[in-house]
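Worked example

This section walks through a single chain of length 407. The input is the sequence exactly as stored; nothing has been trimmed or padded.
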Amino acid sequence: MKRLLVPIALCAFSISLHAQVVDTTICNILKDPASFNGKIVRVKGMVHADFDQFIVKDQNCQSQINALWLSYPEGTKGKAGPVALVEIQPAKNFAGAFQPVTRTPVKMDKSKDFKDFDALLSTPHKQPRTCLGCNRYAVSATLEGRLDGVASSKIRRDPAGKVIGIDGFGNLNAYPARLVLRSVSDVVPHEIDFVKADEVVKAQPPDSPDTLVNQTMNSVSSTAMNGLKIQAKYTPVFDPVQAIDQIRAAAGAFGAGSPIVLAIERTTTAYGKHDSSVVIGYGTANEASPKQEAQSARESPDGLIFNCTFNISRLQGMALPAATVHVGEHIADVRSPQPDVALPTLFDLEYQAWATTALNIISTQQRTLTISGGYVLWNEFWSQAERNKELDTAISDFLRKDELMSR
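Given that input, the structure is written out below as tokens.
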């Protein structure tokens, strides 16, 4: 009789473990992320590892952000993940209330499915010109892991404008839910269409010593082009901070006080103004880090630490200065919000960052800029009349159709 107790107990334990996995949908989670906090969930979705995203998404959700941020458990050492991003951490002198979080660890099942999944999502689309976050594949899959959820991921400020809440996950802490993956199955690759973008690049003549550039900006958020010839030469470097002087010098060819110079100065100043609170790291930021969820021991003039990570292996040549500008725009928008955008959404913040990134590409004499999903943000040979429309359309379509964001 006693011999039967062991298998019966094991069977009951197995059933208990199985019951702990909640089969749900991305849309259900996004309706109330906090209610899933700490649960082991199983969802199906389309996974993208792009420029500043590592997400699993569902285009059917009625949310401002139709995706969960995706992370591997600490120590997984996977290759897939965002190319560049900034995560905000409360400083020692953070103005808001900080509540330490303890999470149950999960361990990655490094099965063949996971290895295929990670390899596909880290395969770049190769293009001879600047292509930011351009991966060859997205992947549909069934994902299982620990769900971390918060009630709100919006950056909250007090009446004086000081940040008192930064509760979300991923880039800009903008995602209200994060899935820390422990297993993956049903992996199906989906090749991303870069045909039109590649045709634009192929149609370009070889670079000449001096490139005629016909774009500047009337404001940071809307474009109007003027004919300007750029004479500054640009030599790529391999560190974001070291790149700043060259980024500014290239923009300076537009003339002191011009909108493009002011925009680039704003984004690059974000790194040096409070350098002790802007932390630069290198590699692939694809793991959930308890250290970054803790309160920093560093102090900061505004109570915030900006952890910026750049995957240098994916930012060769002119891609690194472009990524430096993009991330710098995000830091500037949090530290010194634009006065005309009182409550910016992630859509607004990403639109702004991509518009300023395009300015850097223009000022450094690049003929084209392609981004994730095969969208062309800049083509030197667009007509004067096309430029405003094409840039706005490309950024808006990318954010709405590929990133599944809304205003």
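What to look for: The CA atoms of residues 302 and 371 lie 32 Å apart.
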